[in-house]
What does this fold into?
Amino acid sequence: MKKRVSLIDIGTNTALLLIADLEPESGAIQPVFHKQTILRLGKNVDAEKIIDQAALRRLIDCMVDYRGISDPHNSETIIAAGTSALRDAKNRIEIIDAVERASGVPIHCISGKEEAELTFCGAVAGMNELPELFTVIDIGGGSTEISMGSLEALEESVSIDIGSVRLTERFFSTLPPSQEEFAAAKTHINQLFTANIIPFFAGRERVYGVAGTLTTIAQVSQGLKHFDALKVHNYPLQYQDVHDFLEKLKVSALEEIIELGIPDGRADVITMGTLILHQFMRLLGVGEIRVSIQGLRFGMAQKELLRLQGKRLSMG
It folds into this structure.
C-alpha cells in the first residue's frame, strides 16, 4: 500500500515542501508536488541566538500554507524538520510550540549529524551509476554538512557552522564587500574547512552538492534566467565556473546580482554561498560537483519509506 506524505525542510533561509507517494513494495519515492518559500528564519540568529517575532510570523504563515496544500493533496502524514537556525535559537521550544498551535504542523529539530546523514541519502535517491565511494555537500543558510560513504553505509559526516546567511551577516556590511571583509570571511571558512575536511579526501572523486547555492550557480552557469529542474539536476558544475562566478560576484552590487537571474531572498547571500563552495572545492581539490535538486526532504522520505518497510537507515 502506498502512503502519501508531506516532507518539510525548514532551513535558515528557505523552507521546502515535498509531497511524495512512498511505495514500500517497490521502494520507490514518487514526487507529487514541490514548493519553496524564502523564509529567512535565521535572520540575526547568529548574533542574537533567538528567532524574533517577525521570523516566527513568517514561519507560521509558511506552515499554514504548506498544511493548506497538504490537506487537499490527501497527505496522510506531515513530517517537518528544523535545521541550523532552530538548533541555534535559545527560544526554539517556544517557536516550535507556537507553530504547532497555529498550523497543526509538528516540527522536529534535528542535529547537524542527522541532517548530514539524511541529506546524504536524499541527494542521490534514484540516481544511477553511483561509485563505490562518494561525498555529498549541503551548503545551507546557517551550516554546511559534508558526508561521505556508499549506498550501503555512511562512513563520515560533519556539520560545520558556516552558512550563507550566517557568514553574510557576520562578515559583509555591504555588497560588494570590501576587500578586507572578503578576505576575513575567506580566512574563517578556510580555518573551519581545514579542521574538518581531511577524512573527505578519500571521497573527492565524485561529489554531489545540494541546496540553493548549488542549484542557483548551476542555473546561472547554463545561462538560464529561471530555474529549470531538469537542466539543473545532475548538472556537472566545474570548479572553473564556480571560480569565474565568484570573481564576478565579489565586485557586484545587489542590483547587479539580481539582474543575473538570482531571486530576491537569495541574491544577498549568494556571494558568501559561492565563496563557501569555492573554498571547499579548492581545499579538497574537487574539479567537478554534480548538482542534485534533492536533499534533506528526500532523505526524510527515504527514512519514512524504510520505516514502512520495517527497516532502518544504515549509518556507519
Observations:
- The chain is about 45% helix and 20% strand.
- The radius of gyration is 19 Å.
- The mean pLDDT is 93.
